[in-house]
Write the structure tokens for this entry.
Amino acid sequence: MFRQALQFINYDKPKAFGATLGVLVAIFLIGQQAGIFIFLTSLMTTLVDNSKADIWVVNDKARDANRLGQVDMRYARELKSIPGVDIVSPLVLAGANAKLRNGEQLPVQLVGVEAPEFLLEPWRVIKGSKYGLLDNGGVSVDVFDINSMDSLELGEPLEISGRRSYIKTITRGARGFGGSLLVTTVNRARTLGKVPANKASAILLAVRDGFPADSVVAAINRSFFGIRAWEREAFSQQTRKENLSNSGIGTSTFTLIIFAIISGMVIIGLTLYSAAIERLNDYATMKAIGASNGYVTRIILSQALLIAIVGFSLAAVLLVGFRKGIAGAGVIFEYGWMLWVGLLLATLLLSLGGALLAIFRIRKVEPASVFR
Amino acid sequence: MPEPEVLARLEQAKKIYQSGDTTITALDSTTMEVRSRELVLVEGPSGSGKTTLISLIGCVIYPTEGKVFVRNVHTSGLNDRQLSKLRLENIGFVFQNFNLIAPFSALDNVAFPLRLMGKSGKDARQEALAQLEKLGLAGRRKNRPKELSGGQKQRVAIARALVTNPRILLCDEPTASLDHTSLEKIMSELRNLSREGKAVVVVTHDPRLEEYADRIVRVEDGRIVDEKTSG
């Protein structure tokens, strides 16, 4: 069956090339959009996902880790009394300006974390360490922001909100949704970001071994007014959901993917249909000799499948290249196995779906037409 | 020598085509038998119903009325799959325009019916090669149809029709595009096949073929108007 399908493909190379190109372009576009989507959604939840906290306690109106509002620090003291709570650590997020060597101002988001607990610490560290943040004026910056920060190096000074700070930790790919993240201590973030000493953006909790986080969350939400506790994963999901529903990123990506599938299906459909029309007499002969409709259907599906395999393989190579290429610009993401499976299914959908037109036409061919 | 066996039978078979408001009776209440060990020539002017007759015997269409039996199987009761199987196992076709499958090589064209019968690719190609060798075409086995001459194409078509050893061979104008030498060669081959026990039905306009026929059936206006057995 595949040999015969291959012979049909080989006989009409330009059309086979056109259909393969259709698969390649459609799957590459879908994969590219999906990659950017994965990157953006990972940025949305990067603070939550990279924290070691089991529970995030935030203002009861906060639904997004990037827009937390404030909670009063007295809650931090009270939370320690909840059974199962092991570590309580405030988190401060604050906007500030970093002044570059050339005098340009760069808006940054300060992330104040508490040492030595470090329930949130700089991730993807490539130079220095988290303990460098404890040094006088220590901050972490990301290598992809360094270029825009005038090529600053480890240990070099940086002016934030008019005060001198020092780069003590450099990360690669630890970037925020709203812009450059500068991780520092809670106190320094309060000072540079002008956050009152009795306020924090969130209170991060680590739960004692043996205590289920959900029961601690339930206990907190029963006992306190004005704050809400979330398990880390739940808060990550809530943040993603909030951003997707408000930003239109999800709709935009989904629409592009749907259009890529439709346009791919149309290209492949028309190409296979046109190839089938040109070979109507061959298919009629096959049927006259004794091939059933099922047999000729399988020959066309096999052609579509072969085109799908080649198109998908080429698209996969291009997507791996694309991922590596834009990783160099700080757009770092991974194509997980589920995405590859999804892309393969999309390839099969558009290839086999595209073959339907040709199949319907060929099934209608009467074997008697060979006598005319 | 055993009595000739009736391999195909039309009983009051009628075929009507509907084209918009127009009804065309291509074949009208025709009764005919096709027997083993005979070469039947079906003659008649264009549009007389020859092709419809051969299409009904070949089970590529269903009769509108009447019955068609192939090897005692009533074809009207069969679905697409069953009818395809009946054709594959019992009928070989040789078409006017050869109808070789363009993307396939000569060998793969001949092997195709065997593949349909479920033989492995290797076995099918071995048997197909043996059939091509019989017809002196083994050297052209890798060539596609467009690389073959008219006579070579026709011999590949015959090889394909014979490779499954069918009892009935239906030939639609098999000599239409052949020169005299090729015509003689092909018709002698067809007559030999009928002597070996096959039923060979040849549709033609060409009166030169009459000398090879055991029986000549003349069709006009969708009816058999004359039937004669040659001496």
